[in-house]
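Data availability (excerpt). The following record was deposited with the supplementary files.
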Amino acid sequence: MGHSEVAVDGGVLSARSDGSGEPVMVVQTALSVDELMPVMRLLRERYRVITFDRRGYGGSAATRGPASIDIDATDCLAILSELDSVPAHVIGASYSAAVALTLASAAPNAVRTLTVAEPPPRHVPDSADFLAANRHLLHTHEREGGAAALEEVMTMLSGRDWRSRQEALVPGSVARLERDADAFFLRDIPALLGWQYGADDAARVSAPVLYVGGTDSGSWFQQTRTWMHALFPGMSTVMIDGAGHDLALTHPTELASAITKFIAAHDDRPEA
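Predicted structure:
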């Protein structure tokens, strides 16, 4: 596995690439650095997979300055440029789907295809409830600290047995969730609360778009799919039966298969 330290405004990002073939950037999502790891292991069989620790996570030391989705997207472009991987196929899930969308709008020539798995319901009819839930988490973090806030959000997402469930899916991941929790509460939630994305942004995206969702994800993400269809009427859609919002972790084979088929369908390289 190739490891790189990439200098950006505010510090240094820790990036990795592995495999060979066309470059595929998998953008690390919020809170769990492990959520997309099972998908990346599958994609490395066919592609050169690139990822990096976002600001505040893992081996990255870039934490200065305000947090925003735009800054995360700029960091993605810096990584791709440093690793000579422009354009790349770009993949994001949940929070990182917002980052991937923003990258595809800000730097359309850097994105060959765009795959998003259930972007945050920031702009849907029930967004007020979603924003209120996130503000409540910030209040919990401020009043009771990171451990209490982590317990609250993970119980909300995965139930009270989230620790045993998480460890069964990815051993060691609970310790990493605890390690990185402050980055989620101090950087990612404020960035998400400030995220704006609409028709003008979508119009700048030149890459074909794939939306992947889970049939059991709930009403917020049903609304997100409708919102995405309005922004990208020609997008492809894959729904994974029985999957919830953590589909990248629970159904990596199905997600990797959808991505691989989508990339192959839009492979515009000239014949050898």
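Summary of structural features: Strands lie at 2-8, 11-18, 23-26, 48-52, 88-93, 111-117, 209-214, 236-240.
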